[in-house]
Amino acid sequence: MGSVSLKIGDGTARFERAALCSSAVNGLMLLSVLTTNLFAFYAFTYTPNTQLTHPLLHTHKNISLISEQVSLILREIESSQKKLTQMEKELLGFESIDLSRPNIADELKLFLQRHQLPLGKDSRTEITEMVASVGHSCVKSMDMISEYMNYKPSGQCPDDLSLAHKLILKGCEPLPRRRCLAKTISKVGLYNFPISLWKNVNDKIVSWSGLSCKSFECLKSKKLSKDCVGCFDLAANGYENQRFVKARGKNDFLIDDVLAMGSGGIRIGLDMGGGSGTFAARMAERNVTVITQSLNIEAPCNEFIAARGLFPLFLSLDHRFPFHDNVFDLVHAGSVLDVGGKPEKLEFLMFDLDRILRAGGLFWLDNFYCANDEKKRDLTRLIERFGYKKLKWVVGEKVDSGKSEVYLSAVLQKPVRV
After folding, report:
1. Overall average pLDDT of the 150-167 stretch
2. Is the preceding omega at residue 176 within 30 degrees of 0, hence cis?
């Protein structure tokens, strides 16, 4: 048969193939196959005596019973989770709007439908269709939103500003109305800038729709909020005219003092809950551009601000700010930061505020009303989480309607984070 040589080191190892050895190996392999087949045949044909009890049999039955119970529990848990998820969606309004409901306005149905782009896929974004943007909270106000959307396309928009405000305050934002023409008002008697900053606005150039007051004279005696008491009275010696340039208490900071704290200069800012726009007016006198966020709650704030030659932003604080990151040198806010007394909403707002404020920029908290010590502590802890530098921090009391109230004013500087 020959031989096979394997060289190892300097010598060789030689193996002789013998016929006898090969036959022995073949015999052992045959015996092994036969033995295996006999055992297999025995295993398949053997019937155990059911009268005899064996520990392994009991163990097998117990394991099967436990497995069935665990499977049942897991199915119950899965079913409960699905029910809870469905309940949460119904409570929060995350379910999509049911367009088959009979009271849905046709304009709302058309708006919510997906529309293919006329030129196909956009090469930059790869978007193929336009999707309507409607806040999930609109689902919880279906009757109101359908009433709001019940208008004639290409016609004049219904005179229902109060309905729009109710929807916004319920979280239905942005509003879906698109295809109607807003009522036009003749803007006669507007003054040139900067004279317009401190001239009273004519009653006839604003809309009083849905408002209890129908003139600015009526608004002068109104306390619309803690930050807007008689704020539409621009008389030369009035309170509004003296704000930010003349302090009435230790909580009132002066604009020039705050601007001096700015690192790298203050050029552009955001005023949250700015009322009639007086903060932006004072900043405009110092060549600083300020956008004033305000809603028309009980007063035509946005039109009044625009008539003064300033930039109004009609947006609730529940909405993410439509600005890029790190763009503002200054953010100013007062008691509007309370956002309904809900700490989770304040946290969302503070994170968004931090996002749009540049490193080294200033956050001016102006006379924030602390209803109790707990609210003051919560706000303080939240601010400290961002690591802002306290340039100025004053807690003081004011008397309002015979009652002593605690207010917090502060100037904070956003740190550089790496």
Report:
1. 89
2. no
